[in-house]
Structure formats: C-alpha cells, structure tokens
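The protein record filed below.
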Amino acid sequence: MMIPYRECIVFLLAKGNQKAHRNLKNRLKAYHLTPVQALVLGALEEENGITASEIGKRLGLDNATVSGVLDRLSESSWIIRENDENDRRAQRVYLPEKTEKTMVSKLYEARREANEETLQNLSPEERMLLKRLLRDLV
C-alpha cells in the first residue's frame, strides 16, 4: 500500500523541522549565530565550563561538528576555551561574563519566539502532546 507523501511521517517531520529551523535562524541573524551555535551557548549557560566532548554528548553532535562550532564561537569572542587542569587532552569551554549575563537571555528569547511562531496554530494541549511525542521519538 502506498502512503501519500502528505501522510508520510518522514516528510511531515522534515517539513516541520524546516519551518522551525527557518524561524529560529531568522531570529538569530541579528546576532550572527547559527541555530547550532545558539544551542552550544545554551548548553554552556546551563553548565559553564563543560568539556567540548560533553557539549557533543548533550546536543547529539559529533566531535568534528563541535570543534568547528567552537572555533567559530571563539573567533567571535562568544566563548573562551581553556585546557583542563586534570586532563591535558580535554578543553573546558566557558562563556565570558558579558556573554553569560546579557546575550544568552536574548538568545533564549529568540528561541522562545521561534517556538511560538512555529507552534502558533496549536492549542496549549497540542503543544504539550507534540513535545512529548517528539521526545519519545528521539
């Protein structure tokens, strides 16, 4: 039995992801950040000083992706990288005080607005259900 593309879960998830990604990307343009860079900054806001490896684990990113994102964030002074005192192979990543206090809250607001725009046609109950179902998938 053929599944029409408009009923295909892969198609629907992909289109939903494109819409959500576009909404967030548009809001992050003002800060010259990508959605992945903003996620990394958010992870650091939750726990400043974690290792690059831990960032990758938390966000489901491979080491090469994390390394490239951290390079760009470091070049733009969004983060500071320091060698771990106890493990010379590891690097700890920190938000500078100015980034932590001022910018991360603006990034959270951009994320909230993008979520709101993406979910605007859903009721509060539908939003909760969608989030729960998506968490169950990943």
Q: What stands out?
A: The CA atoms of residues 29 and 35 lie 10 Å apart.
